[in-house]
Write a structure and sequence with these properties.
Layout (H helix, E strand, L loop, with lengths): L2 H15 L6 E4 L5 H12 L3 E6 L1 H6 L5 H11 L4 E5 L7 H13 L4 E4 L14 H29 L2 E6 L12 H21 L4 E8 L14 H9 L10 H12 L10 E4 L9
Parallel strand pairs: 1-2, 1-4, 2-3, 4-5, 5-6, 6-7
Helix pairs in contact: 2-4, 2-9, 5-6, 6-7
Protein name: SDR family oxidoreductase
EC number: 1.-.-.-
InterPro entries: NAD(P)-bd_dom_sf, SDR_fam
Length: about 280
């Protein structure tokens, strides 16, 4: 067999290992940054995708059409896509988000919990409203999402849940104390549920990014020299991660390629979690 035919055959076999064909995914915070890349990769792998966003957050990032653009990219890859606007600061909206995704796609096989909020405020100066908003969006909403999505996965005998954590779980910053604590709580929640749902074909994992180029840290990149220094000192790999690199890890954990992986915290940090510096 000619080498080019062998290469094509091998590429198809490899793609099959990471296929998400026929799967229906809900990605919260899916309109920008890491969530947006996960949406793209899932669609490329064959999944239909519900893209959750909070429109007010996208407007604050200067991307008012981000959710619609993400859905368009899903369609361009030949898959079904739908945008769901929900403000997780309001109790019940995360539950409604899952129900809307199920109604639009016919079910949810894959849930990625990527939406979150943070305030860089010294702990003793944190006002009550910032604390409560982080608790609601970063933790209570996760509980709502899981309670709404897991029953259907269990009934179907197949499911993937991926919560997006943070390097701050293990390498905290004092100005992000509440954010880090809630990310740790989310990881603990996923870790506890993983054991219960494994017998039903449902894997539940946590992905903890290190420093990654996102809309959230755009302000840190305004000074090129300072940003270069931040990157160099951020991890042994001496650079920030790309959102696409987080999406690759998400594909592993949410496709059949990761079918024997559950209850883990995948540290995608460029080595930062190793206690460097």
């Amino acid at each position: 067999m000619p080498h080019d035919e062998i290469d094509t055959q091998n590429a198809l076999l490899l793609a099959h290992r990471f296929s998400m064909a026929g799967r229906r995914a809900l990605v919260t915070g899916g309109s920008v940054s890491i969530g947006r890349e996960i949406v793209r990769v899932f669609a490329e792998a064959g999944a239909d995708v519900a893209v959750h966003s909070a429109r007010a957050a996208d407007i604050a990032f200067g991307q008012p059409n981000a959710a619609a653009d993400a859905v368009r990219e899903v369609h361009e890859r030949g898959r079904r896509g739908v945008a769901i606007d929900a403000d997780f600061a309001e109790p019940g909206q995360a539950t409604r988000c899952v129900h809307d995704a199920i109604a639009a796609l016919g079910g949810v096989d894959v849930l990625v919990v990527c939406a979150s909020i943070q305030y860089r405020t010294p702990f003793l100066e944190l006002p009550a409203d910032q604390i409560e908003r982080q608790i609601q969006i970063n933790f209570r909403a996760t509980i709502e999402l899981l309670q709404a999505a897991l029953p259907g996965m269990k009934d179907n005998g197949w499911g993937r849940v991926l919560t997006i954590g943070s390097i701050n779980q293990t390498r905290p910053e004092s100005d992000l104390a509440v954010y880090a604590a809630l990310k740790s709580a989310q990881h603990n929640l996923s870790f506890n549920l993983a054991k219960d749902y494994a017998p039903h074909g449902v894997t539940i994992n946590n992905l903890s990014p290190g420093l990654v180029i996102t809309e959230r840290n755009r302000w840190r990149r305004q000074d090129a020299a300072k940003w270069a220094d931040i990157q160099k000192n951020s991890a042994p790999i001496e650079r920030a991660g790309e959102a696409s690199e987080m999406a690759g890890a998400a594909l592993l954990l949410c496709s059949d390629a990761g079918s024997f992986i559950t209850g883990i915290d995948l540290q995608a940090t460029g080595g930062r979690h190793l206690g460097w510096q």
